[in-house]
């Protein structure tokens, strides 16, 4: 602690069992021993974010987490800040019982996982990078004492990654990650983690129900409503937030279970750090009373309920600082992907042939052709762009999965000869199943107006049918999990 400020450090730079990670593991283990009715228990704190079906108790504070609305960032900041105090109190309790001095809780702060720290390189790194889970979260065992080197004690930071659940019941039977995620390989490629686009925006939030969409740093203006989940994502919530949840997979891939994975808290600490870095660049938070005065429900280190507003969270959560506000803040992509669109348009230019639901391959590309509609010359009009005010919307309709597949998917428009480079001109954007798995089908829509113009200018627009390829970001080794699926793909104009 420096000048009364706790320093949150980057776990990806730490030794495997740095004291910060050791004491985090001990405190998590202590919280896991407490009854689920205790507000300072691991189960209770996780349920504040979302309730797995394995939990039957109810509480007013449960399932608060807002996604797709402008409370996404302040709510999670408060969630972290109060959780940090619960961890600190648990560390103090353990240290007193074991007569450990000086008290480690007096300097402990929640670490963050800077997964975008390592910029991309031509050759894959010889060992794991910041894009892999920190080693302390992958080891089944941990030291038996502070500073110890003998790994003999069960490690509460490590969840199983050897399950291949085929049903909802099997999925929720035990907290776990997607298969083989506890390896030293990258959790996600850099393109899925790069926060450059978010950090380049200057507006915190806007109403996204119009087209074209106004890109923003934070998520959609939701006034006094705090939606548990709606697809009104801002740039930060889309990348890297959703992609990291989907990439770690397992319980991290479901809103209801994600906070029960100890890496959740480091992931959100990094998002909070990026928000601090965004503000440090001179950007501004909302000043609307509906944002400032909205109250949340949290619990302090003693389990006492508190109801801070966004403004109080902003005022109180100032006793910590980050090791760096600029590391891992993104690098400019070769080509920025199109913005997400809130809805499809009304004039269908091309669509996939009507078929029964089509599975999405979790190992390789799924490609469909878009056949021109009955409107004569629609595709020629598209290529010529003789309607300059037209917005072109690509939509993958009714995307569904019962169980998170452990990877986001990349969407490509007309990549010839299998050109499926997410840094290339044909990359459209992402499909992430965080918050979507088990929740019914959803449409993934993208405003490709500028991209189509760019392809036309470069002579890359075809005369014939368009194709759309949907590719797993990381091909999955699992063989038995239910495959995601979709209904159809369309290109429309509005």
Can you describe this structure in just a few lines?
This protein has 494 residues and is α+β, with helices and mostly antiparallel strands.
Give a description of the structure.
This protein is about 25% helix and about 15% strand. The protein is built from 11 helices and 17 strands. The protein has helices at about 20-35, 40-50, 70-95, 170, 195-200, 235-250, 265-280, 290, 310-315, 380-385, 450-455, and strands at about 5-10, 140-145, 150-155, 300, 305, 320, 340, 345-350, 360, 365-370, 390-400, 410-415, 425-430, 440-445, 465-470, 485, 490-494. Strands 7-14-11-17-8-10-15-12-13 form a 9-stranded antiparallel β-sheet. The longest helix is centred in the first third of the chain and has 26 residues, at about 70-95.
Fold blueprint:
Elements: E1 6-8, H1 19-33, H2 42-49, H3 72-97, E2 141-143, E3 151-154, H4 168-171, H5 196-200, H6 235-248, H7 263-280, H8 289-292, E4 298-299, E5 305-306, H9 310-316, E6 320-322, E7 339-340, E8 347-351, E9 358-359, E10 366-372, H10 378-384, E11 392-399, E12 409-413, E13 427-431, E14 442-447, H11 449-457, E15 466-472, E16 485-486, E17 488-493
Parallel strand pairs: 1-6
Antiparallel strand pairs: 2-3, 4-5, 7-14, 8-10, 8-17, 9-16, 10-15, 11-14, 11-17, 12-13, 12-15
Helix pairs in contact: 1-3, 3-7, 6-7
- Outline the biggest β-sheet: 9 strands, antiparallel
- The main sheet orders its strands as 7-14-11-17-8-10-15-12-13
Low-confidence stretches: none
In one word, what is the shape?
globular
> Beta-sheet strand percentage?
5-15%
Q: How many beta strands in the DSSP annotation?
A: 17
Number of helices: 11
Average pLDDT score:
90
**What pattern of helices and strands is seen along the backbone?**
EHHHEEHHHHHEEHEEEEEHEEEEHEEE
Helix content: 10-25%
Distance between the termini: 55 Å
């Amino acid at each position: 602690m420096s000048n009364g400020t706790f320093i949150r450090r980057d776990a990806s730079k730490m030794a495997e069992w740095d004291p910060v990670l050791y004491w985090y593991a001990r405190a998590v283990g202590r919280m896991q021993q407490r009854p689920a009715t205790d507000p300072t228990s691991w189960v209770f704190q996780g349920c504040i974010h979302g309730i797995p079906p394995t939990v039957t108790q109810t509480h007013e504070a449960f399932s608060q987490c807002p996604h797709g609305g402008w409370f996404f960032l302040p709510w999670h900041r408060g969630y972290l800040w109060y959780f940090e105090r619960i961890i600190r109190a648990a560390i103090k309790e353990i240290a007193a019982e074991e007569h450990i001095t000086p008290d480690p809780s007096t300097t402990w702060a929640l670490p963050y996982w800077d997964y975008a720290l390592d910029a991309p390189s031509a050759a894959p790194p010889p060992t794991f990078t910041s894009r892999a889970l920190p080693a302390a979260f992958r080891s089944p065992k941990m030291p038996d004492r502070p500073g110890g080197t003998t790994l003999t004690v069960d490690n509460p930071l490590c969840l199983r990654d050897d399950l291949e659940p085929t049903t909802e019941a099997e999925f929720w039977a035990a907290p776990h990650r997607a298969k083989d995620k506890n390896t030293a390989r990258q959790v996600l490629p850099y393109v899925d983690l790069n926060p450059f686009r978010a950090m380049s925006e200057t507006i915190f939030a806007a109403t996204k129900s119009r087209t074209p969409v106004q890109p923003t740093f934070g998520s959609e203006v939701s006034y006094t409503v705090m939606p548990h989940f709606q697809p009104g994502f801002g740039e930060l919530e889309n990348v890297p937030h959703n992609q990291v949840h989907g990439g770690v997979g397992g319980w991290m891939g479901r809103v209801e279970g994600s906070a029960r994975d100890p890496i959740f808290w480091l992931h959100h600490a990094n998002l909070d750090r990026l928000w601090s870095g965004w503000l440090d660049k001179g950007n501004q938070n909302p000043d609307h009373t509906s944002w400032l005065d909205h109250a949340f429900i949290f619990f302090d280190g003693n389990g006492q309920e508190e109801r801070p507003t966004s403004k109080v969270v902003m005022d109180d959560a100032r006793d910590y600082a980050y090791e760096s506000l600029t590391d891992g803040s993104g690098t400019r992509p070769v080509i920025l992907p199109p913005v997400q669109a809130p809805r499809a348009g009304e004039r269908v230019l091309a669509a996939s042939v009507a078929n029964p639901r089509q599975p999405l391959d979790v190992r390789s590309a799924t490609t469909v052709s878009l056949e021109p509609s009955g409107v004569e010359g629609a595709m020629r009009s598209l290529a010529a762009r003789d309607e300059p005010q037209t917005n072109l919307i690509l939509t993958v309709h009714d995307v569904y999965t019962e169980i998170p597949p452990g990877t986001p998917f990349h969407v490509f428009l007309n990549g010839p000869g299998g050109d499926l480079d997410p840094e290339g001109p044909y990359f459209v954007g992402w499909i992430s199943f965080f918050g979507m798995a088990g929740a019914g089908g959803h449409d993934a829509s993208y405003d490709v107006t500028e991209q189509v113009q760019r392809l036309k200018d470069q002579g890359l627009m075809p005369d014939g049918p368009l194709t759309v390829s949907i590719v797993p970001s990381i091909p999955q080794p699992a063989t038995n999990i239910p495959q995601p699926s979709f209904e159809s793909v369309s290109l429309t104009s509005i």
